[in-house]
Design a protein that fits this description.
alpha+beta, 452 residues, binds protoporphyrin IX containing FE, three-stranded antiparallel β-sheet
């Protein structure tokens, strides 16, 4: 009886706080909207850049969480993938529910995946079934879990230390460090770094943008991505053929795939190897770079977080450092949503006040950023805590399609940031140079920090 009363009080308090946040966020959004309306270009011209700011996204989501946690729109916000309208889901329970119901909510990427491979699907574009099991299983045998500690992490740590040590107190993070480390991983651990690092970084960044971020279906971006895909396929075909002609003993993914091929493993034909490597490459470089920059950006914005991160980096307390980095990514995540498409008419949050009927074909935006701020499940979501449970973060997906590189990310991102954070008087460069510059893409191109 007493515990029921306590539950009721706690829930009521969470409702009141959620409403208060919703009202506060609506007021701040109205203020920002007014300022944008008065600026050159007006509200229409400035709305895109306004909503690209993570703070504004958090405010919009706070309003939705409070007053319309699940909404359905007739409008098709996504042009890149076929759909019949849009649903936005903001409460953590519902976000996790959508991302776990593969039979009701499917991944949509298949048509663009097939364009990139010129034929086959890649496992992120697949529903549960034999093809998915075959490809993920083979690639898990190639990219083995112990490799992270034995191969990937030592290499990333040594390289990051070298780069930061040789930077003389000024570091433009994306070109000098955060793109360099994951590219090096594709070269030395995947065995497939492309003709040179600039080309591979450009190929993967453009293709990632095309697959996941090009919601408006820009024809110029498609042409560029398909051109890069053709070049990457040719390069991978040649890399596979020349490795077969001149075998090596390197413990890399290409050799592991070829060993699986010799053993007759399903999915490991030359074409299968090429397509699986292509999919992995696209996911690996721009993501790690962007997440590293966003985490550092969020840490630099918060003096207590910076102090904690610097203390942990200098003391070699990797667990605490990682906790700070994941918390920074909770506030400033790589992707604020993951989207799916309803395979049939269905219901979200059945028998609750927020119950929503979803129509077959609607794209469902599962707002992971919102889920990580939902105070019904997350304690003091607005505060920065370096010691939260990892499960409070949804920073590389959840459910069947949880990031294949999760263990790599967990090791490599802190390894990239540790030597930077260990530096004395770490700060942003003055002016625009000290802020993330995406150069009109979804990925950081420049972001300069200084240290003594
Ligand atoms: C911080 C870096 C990264 C972030 C933020 C990230 C994010 C994500 C997210 C959100 C998903 C789920 C997509 C969905 O459910 O629709 C995903 C899946 C995936 N990621 Fe990553 N990723 C990162 C790094 C990597 C790396 C390093 C690799 C390659 C080694 C990789 C390969 C993949 C693959 C293959 C999938 C599909 C998994 C499946 O379908 O089972 N990612 N990633």
């Amino acid at each position: 009886m007493l515990s029921s009363l306590a539950n009721l009080l706690t829930t009521s308090w969470a409702v009141i706080l959620t409403w208060a946040e919703g009202i506060g966020s609506a007021t701040r959004l109205a203020g920002a909207g007014l300022r944008a309306a008065r600026a050159p270009g007006g509200l229409k011209g400035n709305a895109g850049s306004l909503l690209a700011e993570p703070e504004r996204q958090r405010q919009v989501l706070a309003v939705l969480r409070a007053f319309a946690p699940n909404i359905s729109l007739k409008r098709q916000l996504v042009k890149a993938y076929e759909n019949t309208g849009t649903v936005i889901v903001t409460r953590r329970e519902d976000v996790l529910d959508v991302l776990s119901r593969d039979a009701d909510f499917e991944v949509v990427y298949e048509p663009r995946m097939r364009k990139l491979t010129e034929g086959e699907n890649f496992f992120l574009g697949m529903q549960p079934g034999w093809d998915y099991t075959r490809d993920v299983s083979a690639m898990r045998l190639a990219a083995r879990r112990p490799d992270v500690e034995e191969i990937v992490l030592p290499r990333a740590t040594a390289l990051a230390d070298d780069i930061v040590g040789g930077s003389f107190g000024r570091l433009d993070l994306p070109p000098q460090l955060t793109l360099e480390i994951p590219w090096d991983m594709t070269e030395t651990y995947f065995g497939a770094g492309g003709p040179d690092k600039a080309t591979m970084q450009d190929w993967t960044t453009t293709m990632f943008w095309y697959l996941f971020g090009d919601l408006g279906a820009d024809p110029a971006l498609e042409a560029k991505a398909l051109g890069h895909a053709a070049d990457m396929r040719t390069w991978l075909d040649e890399a596979i053929a020349s490795r077969k002609a001149a075998p090596t003993e390197a413990p890399d993914l290409l050799n592991r795939c070829l060993a699986l091929q010799s053993a007759g493993t399903p999915g490991m034909s030359d074409l299968g190897i090429r397509n699986n490597l292509l999919g992995l490459l696209i996911g690996a470089i721009p993501t790690i770079s962007k997440a590293s920059c966003l985490a550092l950006d969020a840490i630099l914005d918060r003096p207590e977080a910076l102090e904690l991160a610097q203390k942990s980096a200098r003391a070699g307390d990797d667990t605490r450092l990682a906790g700070v980095v994941w918390e920074a990514l909770r506030h400033n995540p790589h992707n604020p949503v993951i989207y799916r498409r309803a395979t049939r008419n269905t219901v979200i949050a059945r028998s609750t006040l927020r119950e929503l009927h979803v129509k077959k074909g609607q794209i469902v935006f599962a707002a992971t950023l919102s889920a990580m701020y939902d105070r019904f499940d997350i304690d003091a979501p607005g505060s920065f805590r370096g010691n939260r449970r990892f499960e409070d973060h949804i920073i590389w997906g959840t459910g069947m399609h949880t990031c294949f590189g999760a263990a790599i990310n967990a090791a490599v991102i802190p390894a990239i940031l540790k030597p930077v954070l260990a530096q004395p008087n770490l700060r942003r460069a003055d002016g625009a140079a000290g802020r993330i510059d995406t150069g009109g893409t979804p990925f950081p191109q420049h972001f300069t920090v200084l240290f003594d």
